[in-house]
Amino acid sequence: MTARRNIDGILIQWGERLFYPGNRIVRPDYTPRLDVGLQFRAAVIRGRIAATVRRAPQAFVRVTGGGRGMGAIASHLRYISMDGELPFEDDRGVIRKGKDALSDLVEQWRHGGTYIAKVEDRREALNLVLAMPAGTDADQLRQAVREFGRLELAEHRYVMVLHKHQSSPHVHFCVKFESKNGSRLRHGPQDLSRWRETFADRLKSLGIEAEASRLASRGEIRRFEALWRLRAKEQDRPLSAPSSTKRGPAHEKRCFEAMQGWAAILKALQSSELDEDRKLARRVMDFMIRTPYVAEVMRKNPEMMRDAGQYQQSRRQELSQTVTLQRSGPEWTR
Protein backbone atom coordinates (compact mmCIF):
# COMPACT_ATOMS: atom_id res chain seq x y z
CA MET A 1 0.00 0.00 0.00
CA THR A 2 2.89 2.35 0.82
CA ALA A 3 4.47 1.70 -2.59
CA ARG A 4 1.15 2.42 -4.29
CA ARG A 5 0.78 5.68 -2.36
CA ASN A 6 4.32 6.69 -3.32
CA ILE A 7 3.62 6.04 -6.99
CA ASP A 8 0.34 7.94 -6.77
CA GLY A 9 2.17 10.83 -5.11
CA ILE A 10 4.77 10.97 -7.90
CA LEU A 11 2.08 10.90 -10.57
CA ILE A 12 0.20 13.73 -8.89
CA GLN A 13 3.34 15.81 -8.33
CA TRP A 14 4.55 15.62 -11.93
CA GLY A 15 1.15 15.27 -13.57
CA GLU A 16 -0.10 18.52 -12.10
CA ARG A 17 3.01 20.28 -13.39
CA LEU A 18 2.36 18.91 -16.87
CA PHE A 19 -1.40 19.29 -17.07
CA TYR A 20 -2.37 21.96 -14.55
CA PRO A 21 -0.06 25.00 -14.78
CA GLY A 22 -0.67 27.62 -12.11
CA ASN A 23 -3.58 29.98 -12.64
CA ARG A 24 -4.30 33.34 -11.09
CA ILE A 25 -7.95 32.41 -10.70
CA VAL A 26 -8.66 28.97 -9.27
CA ARG A 27 -12.18 27.67 -9.75
CA PRO A 28 -12.78 24.84 -7.24
CA ASP A 29 -15.52 23.23 -9.36
CA TYR A 30 -12.94 22.54 -12.05
CA THR A 31 -9.90 21.67 -9.94
CA PRO A 32 -11.07 18.70 -7.87
CA ARG A 33 -7.47 17.53 -7.63
CA LEU A 34 -6.89 20.16 -4.94
CA ASP A 35 -9.35 18.93 -2.34
CA VAL A 36 -10.13 15.24 -2.79
CA GLY A 37 -8.43 11.98 -1.84
CA LEU A 38 -5.05 10.88 -3.10
CA GLN A 39 -6.39 7.90 -5.06
CA PHE A 40 -8.97 9.97 -6.90
CA ARG A 41 -6.40 12.64 -7.74
CA ALA A 42 -4.03 9.95 -9.03
CA ALA A 43 -6.84 8.41 -11.10
CA VAL A 44 -7.53 11.80 -12.68
CA ILE A 45 -3.85 12.16 -13.58
CA ARG A 46 -3.72 8.62 -14.99
CA GLY A 47 -6.69 9.54 -17.17
CA ARG A 48 -4.93 12.67 -18.42
CA ILE A 49 -1.76 10.68 -19.11
CA ALA A 50 -3.67 8.01 -21.04
CA ALA A 51 -5.58 10.60 -23.08
CA THR A 52 -2.42 12.55 -23.93
CA VAL A 53 -0.35 9.54 -25.00
CA ARG A 54 -3.14 8.29 -27.26
CA ARG A 55 -3.25 11.82 -28.69
CA ALA A 56 -6.85 12.66 -27.83
CA PRO A 57 -8.27 15.68 -29.71
CA GLN A 58 -7.10 18.98 -28.28
CA ALA A 59 -9.57 21.71 -27.35
CA PHE A 60 -8.66 24.83 -29.31
CA VAL A 61 -9.00 28.33 -27.84
CA ARG A 62 -7.23 31.09 -29.71
CA VAL A 63 -7.15 34.88 -29.53
CA THR A 64 -7.61 36.22 -33.06
CA GLY A 65 -7.52 39.93 -32.33
CA GLY A 66 -9.60 42.67 -30.81
CA GLY A 67 -11.36 45.88 -31.72
CA ARG A 68 -9.91 49.30 -30.88
CA GLY A 69 -13.20 51.11 -30.97
CA MET A 70 -16.77 50.43 -32.03
CA GLY A 71 -15.93 50.67 -35.72
CA ALA A 72 -13.62 47.65 -35.56
CA ILE A 73 -15.94 45.76 -33.19
CA ALA A 74 -18.96 46.28 -35.45
CA SER A 75 -16.94 45.18 -38.47
CA HIS A 76 -15.92 41.97 -36.71
CA LEU A 77 -19.49 41.24 -35.61
CA ARG A 78 -20.66 41.68 -39.20
CA TYR A 79 -17.91 39.34 -40.38
CA ILE A 80 -18.59 36.49 -37.93
CA SER A 81 -22.37 36.71 -38.41
CA MET A 82 -22.04 37.07 -42.19
CA ASP A 83 -23.74 40.46 -41.98
CA GLY A 84 -26.50 39.10 -39.78
CA GLU A 85 -27.30 36.03 -41.90
CA LEU A 86 -26.03 33.63 -39.23
CA PRO A 87 -27.76 33.57 -35.82
CA PHE A 88 -25.75 35.15 -33.01
CA GLU A 89 -26.21 34.48 -29.31
CA ASP A 90 -25.40 36.92 -26.52
CA ASP A 91 -24.44 36.47 -22.86
CA ARG A 92 -28.11 36.39 -21.83
CA GLY A 93 -28.79 33.42 -24.11
CA VAL A 94 -30.82 35.54 -26.54
CA ILE A 95 -30.46 34.30 -30.14
CA ARG A 96 -31.11 36.75 -32.97
CA LYS A 97 -30.26 37.25 -36.64
CA GLY A 98 -30.61 39.92 -39.28
CA LYS A 99 -29.02 43.31 -39.96
CA ASP A 100 -31.41 45.24 -37.73
CA ALA A 101 -30.77 42.93 -34.77
CA LEU A 102 -27.03 43.25 -35.33
CA SER A 103 -27.23 47.06 -35.46
CA ASP A 104 -29.22 47.03 -32.23
CA LEU A 105 -26.54 44.90 -30.57
CA VAL A 106 -23.80 47.28 -31.73
CA GLU A 107 -25.65 50.22 -30.17
CA GLN A 108 -26.11 48.30 -26.91
CA TRP A 109 -22.37 47.68 -26.74
CA ARG A 110 -21.54 51.26 -27.71
CA HIS A 111 -23.61 52.80 -24.89
CA GLY A 112 -23.62 50.01 -22.29
CA GLY A 113 -21.09 50.89 -19.59
CA THR A 114 -18.32 53.27 -20.60
CA TYR A 115 -19.11 54.80 -23.99
CA ILE A 116 -17.08 53.25 -26.83
CA ALA A 117 -16.18 55.69 -29.61
CA LYS A 118 -15.68 54.64 -33.21
CA VAL A 119 -11.90 54.58 -32.64
CA GLU A 120 -10.24 54.05 -29.26
CA ASP A 121 -6.63 53.94 -28.09
CA ARG A 122 -7.04 50.53 -26.49
CA ARG A 123 -8.89 47.34 -27.29
CA GLU A 124 -12.49 47.32 -26.17
CA ALA A 125 -13.31 43.77 -27.29
CA LEU A 126 -11.41 40.49 -27.49
CA ASN A 127 -11.97 38.08 -30.38
CA LEU A 128 -11.65 34.35 -29.74
CA VAL A 129 -12.14 31.17 -31.74
CA LEU A 130 -13.06 27.94 -29.93
CA ALA A 131 -12.84 24.84 -32.07
CA MET A 132 -12.48 21.07 -32.30
CA PRO A 133 -11.35 18.79 -35.15
CA ALA A 134 -13.56 17.83 -38.08
CA GLY A 135 -16.23 15.31 -37.16
CA THR A 136 -17.15 16.96 -33.86
CA ASP A 137 -20.88 17.49 -33.45
CA ALA A 138 -21.43 21.20 -34.13
CA ASP A 139 -24.44 21.60 -31.84
CA GLN A 140 -22.62 19.93 -28.95
CA LEU A 141 -19.63 22.17 -29.62
CA ARG A 142 -21.89 25.24 -29.41
CA GLN A 143 -23.35 23.99 -26.12
CA ALA A 144 -19.85 23.53 -24.69
CA VAL A 145 -18.93 27.09 -25.71
CA ARG A 146 -22.19 28.37 -24.23
CA GLU A 147 -21.32 26.76 -20.88
CA PHE A 148 -17.73 28.01 -21.14
CA GLY A 149 -19.00 31.58 -21.48
CA ARG A 150 -21.29 31.27 -18.47
CA LEU A 151 -18.49 29.90 -16.31
CA GLU A 152 -15.54 32.04 -17.37
CA LEU A 153 -17.03 35.30 -18.63
CA ALA A 154 -20.30 35.70 -16.75
CA GLU A 155 -19.48 39.32 -15.81
CA HIS A 156 -18.91 40.40 -19.41
CA ARG A 157 -21.07 41.09 -22.45
CA TYR A 158 -20.26 38.68 -25.27
CA VAL A 159 -21.56 37.32 -28.56
CA MET A 160 -20.99 33.87 -30.03
CA VAL A 161 -21.58 32.61 -33.58
CA LEU A 162 -21.29 28.98 -34.72
CA HIS A 163 -19.58 28.32 -38.06
CA LYS A 164 -20.18 24.83 -39.41
CA HIS A 165 -19.88 25.49 -43.14
CA GLN A 166 -16.13 24.77 -43.04
CA SER A 167 -14.27 21.49 -42.52
CA SER A 168 -13.92 21.89 -38.75
CA PRO A 169 -16.79 23.33 -36.67
CA HIS A 170 -15.80 26.37 -34.63
CA VAL A 171 -17.38 29.19 -32.68
CA HIS A 172 -16.39 32.84 -33.00
CA PHE A 173 -16.61 34.49 -29.60
CA CYS A 174 -16.42 38.28 -29.14
CA VAL A 175 -16.29 39.58 -25.56
CA LYS A 176 -16.22 43.16 -24.24
CA PHE A 177 -13.13 44.01 -22.23
CA GLU A 178 -15.06 46.05 -19.69
CA SER A 179 -17.11 43.91 -17.30
CA LYS A 180 -20.50 44.83 -15.90
CA ASN A 181 -18.77 46.11 -12.75
CA GLY A 182 -16.22 48.17 -14.68
CA SER A 183 -13.14 45.93 -14.36
CA ARG A 184 -11.03 44.93 -17.38
CA LEU A 185 -10.75 41.41 -18.77
CA ARG A 186 -7.45 39.60 -18.20
CA HIS A 187 -6.28 37.27 -20.96
CA GLY A 188 -2.68 36.34 -20.22
CA PRO A 189 -1.16 32.90 -20.90
CA GLN A 190 -2.44 31.47 -17.61
CA ASP A 191 -5.96 32.72 -18.31
CA LEU A 192 -5.91 31.18 -21.79
CA SER A 193 -4.68 27.91 -20.32
CA ARG A 194 -7.57 27.93 -17.84
CA TRP A 195 -10.04 28.76 -20.60
CA ARG A 196 -8.87 25.74 -22.57
CA GLU A 197 -9.23 23.56 -19.47
CA THR A 198 -12.79 24.77 -18.90
CA PHE A 199 -13.71 24.34 -22.57
CA ALA A 200 -12.29 20.80 -22.63
CA ASP A 201 -14.10 19.99 -19.39
CA ARG A 202 -17.42 21.15 -20.84
CA LEU A 203 -16.83 19.10 -24.00
CA LYS A 204 -16.12 16.00 -21.92
CA SER A 205 -19.28 16.58 -19.88
CA LEU A 206 -21.17 16.30 -23.19
CA GLY A 207 -19.46 13.05 -24.13
CA ILE A 208 -16.87 14.56 -26.50
CA GLU A 209 -13.29 13.43 -25.90
CA ALA A 210 -11.10 16.50 -25.50
CA GLU A 211 -7.82 17.43 -23.85
CA ALA A 212 -6.19 20.76 -23.07
CA SER A 213 -2.51 19.98 -22.61
CA ARG A 214 0.14 22.53 -23.51
CA LEU A 215 2.33 22.29 -26.61
CA ALA A 216 5.39 21.76 -24.42
CA SER A 217 3.68 18.94 -22.51
CA ARG A 218 3.13 17.17 -25.84
CA GLY A 219 6.68 17.88 -26.99
CA GLU A 220 5.36 19.93 -29.91
CA ILE A 221 7.67 22.37 -31.63
CA ARG A 222 5.46 23.37 -34.58
CA ARG A 223 4.23 26.92 -34.92
CA PHE A 224 0.60 27.77 -35.67
CA GLU A 225 0.07 30.29 -38.45
CA ALA A 226 -1.40 33.66 -37.56
CA LEU A 227 -5.00 34.24 -38.61
CA TRP A 228 -4.02 37.07 -40.97
CA ARG A 229 -1.68 34.66 -42.80
CA LEU A 230 -4.44 32.08 -43.21
CA ARG A 231 -6.80 34.71 -44.62
CA ALA A 232 -4.07 35.98 -46.95
CA LYS A 233 -3.60 32.44 -48.28
CA GLU A 234 -7.34 32.15 -48.93
CA GLN A 235 -7.06 35.34 -51.01
CA ASP A 236 -3.95 34.05 -52.86
CA ARG A 237 -1.80 36.92 -51.61
CA PRO A 238 1.97 36.23 -51.69
CA LEU A 239 3.61 35.67 -48.30
CA SER A 240 7.10 34.94 -47.10
CA ALA A 241 7.36 31.50 -45.54
CA PRO A 242 7.50 31.62 -41.72
CA SER A 243 9.48 29.18 -39.61
CA SER A 244 7.49 25.97 -39.18
CA THR A 245 8.91 25.38 -35.70
CA LYS A 246 8.56 27.25 -32.45
CA ARG A 247 12.05 28.30 -31.36
CA GLY A 248 13.64 30.21 -28.54
CA PRO A 249 15.19 29.35 -25.18
CA ALA A 250 11.90 29.76 -23.30
CA HIS A 251 10.08 27.12 -25.37
CA GLU A 252 13.14 24.83 -25.30
CA LYS A 253 13.18 25.11 -21.51
CA ARG A 254 9.47 24.31 -21.25
CA CYS A 255 9.86 21.25 -23.48
CA PHE A 256 12.88 20.05 -21.52
CA GLU A 257 11.04 20.42 -18.21
CA ALA A 258 8.00 18.64 -19.65
CA MET A 259 10.15 15.69 -20.73
CA GLN A 260 11.66 15.59 -17.24
CA GLY A 261 8.12 15.26 -15.93
CA TRP A 262 7.30 12.50 -18.41
CA ALA A 263 10.51 10.66 -17.45
CA ALA A 264 9.54 10.77 -13.75
CA ILE A 265 6.03 9.52 -14.59
CA LEU A 266 7.47 6.76 -16.76
CA LYS A 267 9.79 5.58 -13.99
CA ALA A 268 6.95 5.54 -11.45
CA LEU A 269 4.62 3.58 -13.73
CA GLN A 270 7.35 1.08 -14.60
CA SER A 271 7.91 0.36 -10.89
CA SER A 272 4.21 -0.23 -10.20
CA GLU A 273 2.84 -3.65 -9.27
CA LEU A 274 -0.27 -2.98 -11.35
CA ASP A 275 -0.34 -4.44 -14.86
CA GLU A 276 -2.38 -1.44 -16.05
CA ASP A 277 0.35 0.93 -14.89
CA ARG A 278 3.11 -1.03 -16.61
CA LYS A 279 1.09 -1.13 -19.84
CA LEU A 280 0.57 2.61 -19.55
CA ALA A 281 4.33 3.01 -19.01
CA ARG A 282 5.00 1.37 -22.38
CA ARG A 283 2.56 3.73 -24.06
CA VAL A 284 4.25 6.68 -22.33
CA MET A 285 7.62 5.55 -23.68
CA ASP A 286 6.18 5.17 -27.19
CA PHE A 287 4.68 8.65 -26.90
CA MET A 288 7.90 10.25 -25.66
CA ILE A 289 10.16 8.97 -28.41
CA ARG A 290 7.65 10.09 -31.03
CA THR A 291 7.31 13.67 -29.81
CA PRO A 292 8.83 16.23 -32.22
CA TYR A 293 11.00 17.66 -29.43
CA VAL A 294 12.58 14.29 -28.55
CA ALA A 295 12.93 13.43 -32.25
CA GLU A 296 14.87 16.65 -32.77
CA VAL A 297 17.07 15.97 -29.75
CA MET A 298 17.78 12.46 -31.04
CA ARG A 299 18.76 13.80 -34.46
CA LYS A 300 21.44 15.83 -32.72
CA ASN A 301 22.54 12.83 -30.64
CA PRO A 302 23.05 9.73 -32.83
CA GLU A 303 23.62 7.52 -29.77
CA MET A 304 20.15 8.32 -28.46
CA MET A 305 18.69 7.62 -31.90
CA ARG A 306 20.26 4.15 -31.94
CA ASP A 307 18.83 3.39 -28.49
CA ALA A 308 15.40 4.58 -29.59
CA GLY A 309 15.61 2.45 -32.74
CA GLN A 310 16.42 -0.62 -30.67
CA TYR A 311 13.49 0.11 -28.35
CA GLN A 312 11.09 0.52 -31.26
CA GLN A 313 12.27 -2.76 -32.77
CA SER A 314 11.70 -4.59 -29.48
CA ARG A 315 8.23 -3.02 -29.18
CA ARG A 316 7.32 -4.17 -32.69
CA GLN A 317 8.38 -7.70 -31.80
CA GLU A 318 6.42 -7.54 -28.54
CA LEU A 319 3.28 -6.32 -30.29
CA SER A 320 3.56 -8.94 -33.03
CA GLN A 321 3.58 -11.65 -30.35
CA THR A 322 0.41 -10.31 -28.70
CA VAL A 323 -1.63 -10.05 -31.91
CA THR A 324 -3.50 -13.24 -32.86
CA LEU A 325 -5.86 -14.06 -35.69
CA GLN A 326 -9.19 -15.43 -34.50
CA ARG A 327 -10.33 -18.60 -36.28
CA SER A 328 -13.99 -17.51 -36.21
CA GLY A 329 -13.53 -14.47 -38.43
CA PRO A 330 -11.16 -12.07 -40.14
CA GLU A 331 -10.93 -9.58 -37.27
CA TRP A 332 -7.60 -9.09 -35.55
CA THR A 333 -7.69 -8.79 -31.76
CA ARG A 334 -5.06 -7.93 -29.20
From TrEMBL:
Source domain of life: Bacteria
Domain MobA/VirD2-like nuclease: 121-199
Region of interest called Disordered, as start-end residue ranges on this chain: 310-334
Start-end of Polar residues biased regions: 310-327
InterPro entries per UniProt: Endonuclease_MobA/VirD2 (IPR005094)
Entry protein name: MobA/VirD2-like nuclease domain-containing protein
Organism this protein belongs to: Roseateles saccharophilus
